[in-house]
């Protein structure tokens, strides 16, 4: 899968498994109720916007569209407004700061009212 459009679906969260879609170069999750983005989303390097793709007679840049998610807390709106590079920088910074990442994971769990499974949790 290369393009995934999930806009206008009233989504509150995206599954961490979305980070396994390594061929994904366009992800649109605009106009939802997302509260956070998966913390490993930065690993989808094709979303970074540095590549250009051709499809039929069109050429377009890779893109991550997260606008109009009024409840988005992680990353903050100001970061998301700066675009994909700023979002990826923020998520990479968390990857290199395990204490801060764990704090945000706990905050997300509280926000969602349940425990999330992440790569930092032990699988049963």
What's the quick description here?
The chain is of the alpha/beta class.
Tally of DSSP β-strands:
5
Mean pLDDT: 82
Note the beta-strand portion: 5-15%
Distance N terminus to C terminus? 29 Å
Output the strand order for the largest sheet: 1-2-5
Number of domains: 1
Number of helices: 3
Q: Please write the string of helix (H) and strand (E) elements.
A: EEEEEHHH
Binned, the helix content reads 25-40%
Query: Major sheet, described briefly?
Result: 3 strands, parallel
Q: Return residue spans where pLDDT drops below 50 for at least 5 consecutive residues.
A: 115-124
Query: What is the C-alpha radius of gyration, as a whole number of Å?
Result: 15 Å
Keywords: Leucine-rich repeat, Repeat
InterPro entries: LRR_dom_sf, LRR_domain-containing
Q: Which features does this protein show?
A:
alpha/beta; single chain; disordered C terminus; two-stranded antiparallel ribbon; 3 helices; 124 residues; 5 strands; three-stranded parallel sheet
